[in-house]
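agent> call fold_tool(seq_1)
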Amino acid sequence: MSTLALAVRDSSTMLRRNLLHARRYPSLTLNLLLTPVMLLLLFVYIFGDVMSAGMGGADRSAYIAYLVPGVLMMTIGSTTIGTAVSVSMDMTEGIIARFRTMAIHRGSVLVGHVVGSVLQSVASVVLVGVVGVAIGFRSTGATALEWLAAFGLLVLFALALTWIAVGMGLVSPNAEAASNNAMPLILLPLLSSAFVPVDGMPGWFRPIAEYQPFTPAIETLRGLLLGTEIGHNGWLAVAWCLGLAVLGYFWSAARFGRDPR
């Protein structure tokens, strides 16, 4: 078999392994999924009328439309924390050392984690999206091409954050440290335009919300689904995704190439 065929075969095996782990131990994914769902319900039913009034809406439906795209992006950040924990567990419990002694493609272990995590992220986004639709979210006038672009953005963002999460898992001494190291993937959406517009934030805080990956990604997704202005956020979101993916890939590859601890 060619090197490419071996890599595809071994990566597929590792992908099945990670999906089986996710199916047999769903508690981690469910716990991480619970955070964006609870925040969605909290902000809609507790703060929705007030927030909508502050944004000039007649009822909470205006705020639901604003909120859901941000929560969808937050869902990706939450889900990838499980990837950091899973990678750290593999590194510290000895299975990676065993894989190194086997005749398998070296990068297939990481590829299996990344592809499995992206699939879980997409599934989580779909579930949160269903909750959003159930409580009143409606996409207004999005074309089939815009829906396709929105899906592509979600997958690309999930891929970028997953590679960063893999790197965090590789440098963490244990699963608890991996979970703590990956917490910015949940905290950054809280400091973005996910819940309130950047223009409504204090002047000293706006740069924190503007100059980070979540805000342009959220604004791009919001524009695609709701028909609002995207402006420069589209290319910024793609640039952030590509930059984080490349950084995470080389960081993970360099760390994985070291001797196992």
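agent> call fold_tool(seq_2)
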Amino acid sequence: MMKHIYIQEVVARDGLQIEKQFVATEQKVNLINELSTAGVDKIEVTSFVSPKAVPNLSDAEEVMRGIKRIEDVSYTALVPNLKGAERAAMCKVDEVNLVASVSETHNLKNVRKTVKESFSSFQDVITFLSGTNIKINGTLATAFGCPFEGSIPEDNVMKWIDSCLDMGANGITLADTTGMATPKQVYHLCRKVLGHWPDLQLTLHFHNTRGMGLANVLGGIHAGVNIFDASLGGLGGCPFAPGATGNICTEDLIHMLTFMGYHVNANLDQFIHLSRNLENIVGHQVPGQIIKAGKITDLHPV
């Protein structure tokens, strides 16, 4: 039997954060509420960062407190530091996501810290959240390659995973932040990680910068991974990566998995509808393919 694949929706944070026009708080709340009923397993709602750094997420508290939570959905937020964690805790998030690049150059450009400095701030957050019910996920950005440094040694990735877990992280995300991964590379790294930590809750986060996002998902599935981030419409992208484009598209991912026979909770038709509405919210076309071409079962008259 084909296994169950869990999909985590990141459009409200990773997708909207780089939009040029501010998306109204009410629109964000409505979008997240609709996503909650569409069958995703986790939603990254927002990021508790400085409003000056990411203006489109300056309403993090209002969005987090305004959404309607569904029991089977986990609501998470990215936090960059202890102050962000304190804000997130006040809003009773289910999980915080801590992000650091495994590339020194990218991390310096992204957060103006060395990797070691970022991990030191992680420890402050984890210590603060100890004793609460808030889970902690550690995301390792540029795990499959850096546009400034090139390939990242697998042992370097393993070292930082070990550090995250030692500090108390509940799960790990390996992020292909700038779309440099290949399916073979994904397979080998994930096999190595799961071989060392067989019970690890491992998530993969792919960008479609070079058109290999969905192929990389299959590389991860073949290696034993069953949790993937995706963004409605394919919105998003790293602002500190040359030529970066959006995340893998949620409805395209659901479409592929569904017609390959995998089990997903997400409702494909509902996601297609939400993606079409998303274009009205952001005021431009989104990169997703299924809303343009239709499902493979959508036949046309001769």
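agent> summarizing second result for user.
The CA atoms of residues 191 and 294 lie 34 Å apart. The chain is about 40% helix and 15% strand.
agent> awaiting next instruction.
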